[in-house]
Amino acid sequence: MRSTKAIIDLSALRHNLKTIKSIASDSKVMAVVKANAYGHGLVEIASALEDAEMFAVATLKEALTIRKAGIETPILLLEGFFDASELDAIVEHDLQMVLHHWPQIEDLKKFSKNFSTDKKIACWVKLDSGMHRLGFAPEDLAKVEQQLEQIQCVDKPIKVMSHFASSDEPECDFSDIQIVRFEQSTEHLIAEKSMANSAGILMHKNAHFDWVRPGLLLYGCSPLSDSCGADYGLHPVMSLESQILTIKAIKAGESTGYGRHWFAEQDTILGLVAIGYGDGYPRHAKNGTPVWVNGRLVPLVGRVSMDMLAVDLGADAQEQVGDRVVLWGKELPAEKVAPFMDTIPYTLCCGVTRRVEFEYIDSTQDQT
Ligand SMILES: Cc1ncc(COP(=O)(O)O)c(C=O)c1O
Predict the structure, then answer these.
(1) Ligand 1 atom nearest to CA at 98
(2) For residue 364, what pLDDT is reported?
(3) The whole model's pTM is what?
C-alpha cells in the first residue's frame, strides 16, 4: 500500500499551547483552528485543545463542525456572519462573532427586531488599525458603540480587536504604530481586547491584552523568517512522510522528470519518492529543496509530478526501496523547506490533500 501520510502529534500540540500560555501568561488563548486547523484536522485538533479558552474560525460551517463534535468551548467567527441568514445558527450554537463593517450592523438591527430569546450574541468590534483588510476605522468606533448599544440582541459590553499587517517583520515598526492606534482608540472602553497573532505573541508583549490569537505557533512553526518553532520551544505537530518507491542509477548528463529540469553532473543514484503535488507537495519546489531520507538531507531534483518526486541520493547511496522519507516535520522543519518553494509554512500545512492518510498520535514522551 502507498504509505504517504501526515502524522499529527497531539501531545506536541498540547505542549505548544502550554508554551504559548507561558509566553503570554496574563492572557487567555483563542486557538485559531480555521481552514481545517491549518490542514491538521479540525475536530481532532479542537478535541485535543481542552485547555484553550476559545476557538477562532473563519466560517459558520467550521464552527458547527466543532459543535457537532460535542465541543462546548466558546467559538469566535473571525469574519462574523457573511449573510444575515446565519444569525439564527449563531444564536442557537452560542457563537461569538466579529463585526467589521456597517452592513453587518444594519442586518443585526433588523434581526434584533424579531429577536425573542434571552440569549445575547457576544460581539467583537474589529478595528482597522492599519492593515486595511477588515475593520472599522478607529474614528468610527464611537458611532459603532452608540448603534450597538441600541441593539437588544448584542451582549454588552462589546469586545474589541485588531489585526497586525506585518508583525512577522521584526525590523518594521508598523506593528508599534498599530498598537498605539488600537490602544488610543479603545482606551476609554472597559472591554476585553485582542490583537496578537503568532508573531505578535512572540514580538509584542505589549499587544497581548486579554486574549491572544495564535494559529501557526500552535502547530509548532515560527511565523518569523530565519527561525523555527524549536527556537521558541515549540514542537512540529505535522510530519509529512512517505517512502522510497524505487531506486534508479543514472549516468552523468541524464535528466529526471517532466520537462528535463535537472541534469546529473555525475553518475548518481536517484530515489523516487511516493509523494507529489496530488498530495499537496508544491509543484514549484526548486531543485535543491531539502528532503530527509534515512537521517540525512538530500536534494530534490527535477520537477515534482502528481504522484512522485525524485531526490539525488548520490553515487554511494545505500538506501533501499521502502525507506522512510520526511518532506517536513520533526526531522525537517517546514520553515526550512518553505523558502525553496517561495512560500511560508502556513501554505504547506494547509495544502496537504485528502488523498494523504492522516494518522493521529499522542506520544507518551515528556514534552514539557
Ligand atoms: C484575525 C486573525 N487572528 C489571528 C490569526 C492567526 O494568525 P497566525 O497563524 O499568524 O497566528 C489569523 C490568521 O490568519 C487571523 O486572521
Answers:
(1) 1
(2) 52
(3) 0.96
